[in-house]
């Protein structure tokens, strides 16, 4: 199938065009070998031909500056790449055309057939600004469309043009950039080492031979030697190239524009007077975030309830239908519980990313990055880390993946390492139960409910720790890599809700794929560990329950839950819990909490399910009931309540700090390319959790 | 009368025409984003936590760190000089 690449600068309206072309059928995956998101859709052209449309990351130039920008250069300099396009749809903002043609002229030099699509025509019309397309067509001899990216008006014509272009042979490369003598000599020699289609492609290979993953071993060294022999200065060459291109296309755009080529958005400037204001800016950011999190938790609570109900119902059905108790328990408590534990987070992740994308499309996120860059820099982070930190409030997995846009390796690494400190939504059920042991629900601090204040405090603690950990890592990790902000603050525009919806779906989907398989596997393993144990122990527990039943004259239901409890104690999970007990005793935890901590590694919210099984007479998801049951639990030796305020605080602190999510570790491993960092992260976070819980429990009790 | 062109920092004069850059690797990024020689630059404000600047350049707006801004060399424009 032929491939069409959508390319353009960031903020050019590229995503809207992609969305109009492919609708909701787009799939999100990764470019092979790298963790850069690839949006791909299949489109049927008027001729009946099906083509793949690929949305590439938005870049200013083929001279890349970050991991996700590099993928564009890597693919476009390699005609054998599976994603190498047969045709490019180049998207540019008509209002800022003079600044958006650098990449375009580079694509022309690569010999790629290009259709140009100019967006924001509606805004230009409103501003009585126009570009004479004939001037551009006469210069580059390519088809050009001016569209309003929000409606379908010009889409049929563009699709027809795609057909026409794909049927034509590729154009002969009409080099825009005139290579210097030195570059030409270098390129000539390079052609003996790598096969390329044209001189500009060879020049790019000379620039980036060290990073291009398709070069064979030895080729890169050879190219390096050629570069040295020719005294090739990559940066100087890039500057020369960029300036030469600008000189050319600026004059073309000026010739084509109706009046003054720089369109200044007065509205954006006025809005920025407030939104990037020293005080108002910060205050508005706080308010905006307050509403985002309010929306996330309130809106998501409905679908989350439905999901829980459906999985609860499905589990009950399985127990009715499947006669073998082992299998029915495995399916309902192992597989379905695991699946439910994944799917229940989809609403929150989707809503959070929907809102973040809306803010991004609106142009606000760039302002937030500008506002907080300097502050975050002090903690080893980058303004762009803000998106990760925010998203971490839902789930660390998509949050960590959002860090790919940070070009500095050290800042990206630190963002990846500290994001899990932000309290994700899986901690909420744990906090909800435990906060009840610290203060009663009726207690008030000033006008506020104390439980609410404590909740807020736990979140703040996570944020502060993330920043402090960032500061420590900043001192430890050494990097020569220079850090940049240099962020464009685009014109504010009405957000494209369809794009936001699609992004939300794709983030949720990537969460299901990334976290899903791991949570599911761990959920099944934990089921096995907590359902099976040494034969003799399991038998003994059954006999013990039989005796107690007779002695205390228990009902069938009471016996069943007592048996479940005793069996869990005798199981491998129980054995692990008991083995952990001496280590966690100083934190105020017993073996039952040990099991809960252990099972939390599937996903933190499993804590609630485990606790309700361990302390249950019948399992329940009702928090108030769980709290009551935990409150009734007595220490068998001292006969004092087991869940006291110090134990609850100790456990809360443990959940704030500990790295308890295997899926996050797996994502960190993938993003950092090895086990080193996830292991460091694991021991650092768990060590901190242990220490904090130890100090809290010892001081408070 | 002949007046020598002296490159200045945008933080000194707030508004000027870009005449050069003082750091190659930063300038490479700046020019790829459209901040080129001949661009008109205005420093609008400093960010709340300091040392990051809101800069208008040829109808575009950027958030630039101090180190990035200081690479941009500007001169007063004719309009500024005559006034």
Overall description:
- The complex is a heterodimer of chains A (about 700) and B (about 80).
- Chain A has about 700 residues and is α/β, with parallel strands linked by helices.
- Chain A is built from 30 helices and ten strands.
- In chain A, the strands form two sheets. In chain A, strands 2-3-4-1-5-6-7 form a seven-stranded mixed beta sheet, sandwiched between helices. Chain A has a two-stranded antiparallel sheet with strand order 8-9.
- In chain A, helix 13 runs antiparallel to helix 21 and helix 23 crosses helix 24.
- About 0% of the residues of chain A have low confidence.
- The model of chain B has no long low-confidence stretch (mean pLDDT about 85).
- Chain B is globular, with a radius of gyration of 12 Å.
- With about 80 residues, chain B is of the alpha+beta class.
- Chain B has one domain: Ferrous iron transport protein A (FeoA) (SH3 type barrels), CATH 2.30.30.90.
- In chain B, strand 3 and strand 4 form a beta hairpin.
- The interface between A and B is large, with 48 and 33 residues.
- Strand 10 of chain A pairs antiparallel with strand 5 of chain B, so a sheet runs across the interface.
